[in-house]
Every structure is written in C-alpha cells, then in structure tokens.
C-alpha cells in the first residue's frame, strides 16, 4: 500500500468519525442558516435604505428649494455607498463570528491600520468631508458664479475632492475642497446695477432727472435681464465740475455688468438728444500778446 493511499484512508476514517455525528451536522446546519439570514437581512436593509434615499431626493426636488439633477444623483450615490459599506462590514464581521473566528485581534489590527491611514491622508479626508457638505448643503452648484479667495469664475464641476471654476478670461482653477474656507455666491439672488450719471451744473436738474426716468423705462421694456423698473434715486454727489445722479436697476443674478453697460450707452444717447450736457475736462489756452 502506498503512502498516498494510506493518507486517503485515514482522511475518510476521520470524516466518517466526526462529520457523521448528528450533533456536528446540526451545528453546521444552524451556522449555515444564520449566515444565510445575516446575508438576506443585510440585503433587505440596503434595499430599504435605497428606497428611503430615493424618496427623500424626490421630495426635495419637489420642494421650493431646488437642486440640480446632477447634485441629487451625487448625494444619493454618496449616501448609498456609505450605508452599503457600513452594512456589508457589519455583516462580514457577524459571519466571521459565526464560523468561530476571533474578531478581537482583527479589530485591533484594523484600528491600527485605520489610524495610520488617517494620519497619512488627513488632507484627503478633509477634502472629501468638505466636498460632501458642499454638495449636501447646496452651497453652490454647477453654473453658479462664485468667488473663493482671489479666484472668481463659473463653477464647472463639484467633485468629492476638488472644485473646478473657470474665470471669464478662460483660466480653470482647481481648488481642493478642504481649502475652501469662505465662498461668495453671485448667482443666488438678483443683483443691482448701479449707474452714476454726471451732468453739468448749468443743466436743468429736474429736466435731466425726467429724461433719465424716460430712458431707463424704455431700457426696462426692451431688456429681459432687468426684473424690476429701474429707479432714479437723485443727486448722489456734488463734485467740483459736475453733479452725479444715481440710477439703480434690479436685474437677474450676475447680469449687473451687462445691464450697466447698456444703461450707460442709452443714457448717453438720450441726454445728447435732449441737449443735456455731460461735463468733461476742457483745456483753455490763452496766448499772451506783448
């Protein structure tokens, strides 16, 4: 008889002696049942969580506080992954406990490893956490015009780790979310265009203000960016050679620059047509005759 055949016979004898015991079979059966129940319950929890997340996102989309579809999808994916990872980790630990594995040393090793990773990746963790709250709290969205420190531009992408904004001159600034301390959002509410119109002291003030009211009313009718009738507030400043009359116009978010330029051009044309002088520096030269 060969050595290999001898080992095979010994193995069969051991299996017959131990695995055919009713107590052992019953124990293995209940272990398998418990593992199956743990797996099924974990799947059910994840499914219920997914349905709850979907319901919350739909409810928020229908509310007065709107967020874009991309942001809603990002939030739902983040929360789903967080719940799925947590439930799966707990399920794996419970299954390992059922097969008799001592989880104490495993948990201790995982804690030490997590601590080492945490110290080595503090900035990365900070970026991810900040990015999550930027998306969840709806601080700004894709297409908004914002300013972060000295960088101002249109948001092109909000990631979990970085935010990309494009300036009006074409530069793309990539800013780690952990470095975002303060944000100014220019796209949340309507903006105000301010135009100061200088007129000569010799001009009739009341006539000049009436002319301004007429022209800003016409600009309001022809410009969709102006959401409210512009106001001629009155004399803002008495200068050395001119009076300045302030005109304000409430307009759509981040359109105050374009509206201000249109108002300046139309006011200049209308004042010229009305014969109202806009003062400008003059140089008078006198020749002394001997």
TrEMBL record:
Residues 81-122 form the Mechanosensitive ion channel transmembrane helices 2/3 domain. The chain crosses the membrane at residues 24-46, 75-97, 103-125. Its main location: membrane. InterPro entries: LSM_dom_sf, MS_channel_1st, MS_channel_C, MscS_beta-dom_sf, MscS_channel_2nd, MscS_channel_C_sf, MscS_channel_TM-2, YbiO_bact. GO terms for molecular function: mechanosensitive monoatomic ion channel activity. Residues 195-278 form the Mechanosensitive ion channel MscS C-terminal domain. It comes from the Bacteria. It is a multi-pass membrane protein. Keywords: Cell membrane, Membrane, Transmembrane, Transmembrane helix. It is found in: Cell membrane. It holds the Pfam family MS_channel_2nd. Residues 124-187 form the Mechanosensitive ion channel MscS domain. GO terms for cellular component: plasma membrane. SUPFAM superfamilies: Mechanosensitive channel protein MscS (YggB), C-terminal domain (SSF82689), Mechanosensitive channel protein MscS (YggB), transmembrane region (SSF82861), Sm-like ribonucleoproteins (SSF50182). Belongs to the MscS (TC 1.A.23) family. May play a role in resistance to osmotic downshock. This is Mechanosensitive ion channel family protein. It comes from Paenibacillus roseopurpureus.
């Amino acid at each position: 008889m060969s050595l290999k055949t001898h080992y095979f016979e010994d193995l069969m004898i051991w299996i017959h002696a131990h695995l055919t015991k009713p107590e052992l079979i019953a124990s293995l059966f209940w272990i398998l049942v418990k593992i199956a129940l743990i797996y099924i319950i974990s799947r059910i929890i994840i499914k219920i969580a997914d349905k709850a997340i979907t319901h919350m996102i739909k409810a928020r989309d229908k509310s007065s506080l709107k967020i874009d579809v991309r942001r809603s999808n990002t939030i739902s994916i983040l929360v789903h992954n967080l719940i799925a990872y947590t439930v799966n980790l707990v399920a794996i630990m419970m299954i390992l406990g059922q097969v008799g594995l001592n989880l104490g040393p495993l948990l201790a090793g995982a804690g030490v490893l997590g601590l080492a990773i945490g110290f080595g990746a503090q900035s990365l963790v900070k970026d991810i956490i900040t990015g999550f709250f930027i998306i969840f709290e709806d601080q700004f969205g894709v297409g908004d015009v914002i300013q972060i420190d000295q960088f101002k531009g249109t948001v092109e992408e909000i990631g979990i780790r970085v935010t990309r904004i494009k300036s009006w001159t074409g530069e793309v600034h990539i800013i780690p979310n952990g470095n975002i301390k303060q944000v100014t959002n220019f796209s949340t509410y309507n903006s105000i265009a301010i135009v100061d119109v200088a007129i000569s002291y010799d001009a009739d003030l009341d006539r000049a203000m009436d002319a301004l009211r007429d022209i800003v009313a016409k600009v309001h009718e022809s410009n969709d960016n102006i959401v409210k009738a512009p106001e001629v507030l009155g004399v803002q400043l008495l200068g050395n050679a001119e009076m300045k009359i302030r005109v304000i116009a409430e307009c759509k978010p981040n359109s105050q620059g374009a509206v201000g330029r249109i108002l300046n051009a139309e006011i200049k044309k209308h004042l010229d047509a009305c014969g109202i002088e806009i003062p400008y520096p003059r140089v008078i030269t006198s020749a002394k005759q001997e």
